[in-house]
Amino acid sequence: MAIHNFLFHNNGMLYGVRECDTCGQREVVQGYAITNLENNKIRIDSVTSNIRGYLIGSFTIPSTINGRTVTEIGNGAFSGCAQLTQITIPSSVRDINASAFQDCTNLSSVNFSGTPQLQTIGSSAFDNCPQLSQITIPASVRSIGASAFDGCANLDLTGLELGSGVNVIETDAFNGCRGLTSLTIPDSVVSIEDYAFFGCAGLRNITIPESVRDLGYDVFSGINGLSITLRYNPSLQANRLSAWLKTVVVPASIT
Question: I need a labelling partner for 6 at 20 to 30 A (CA). Which of 22, 94, 98, 129 fits?
Answer without folding.
Answer: 22
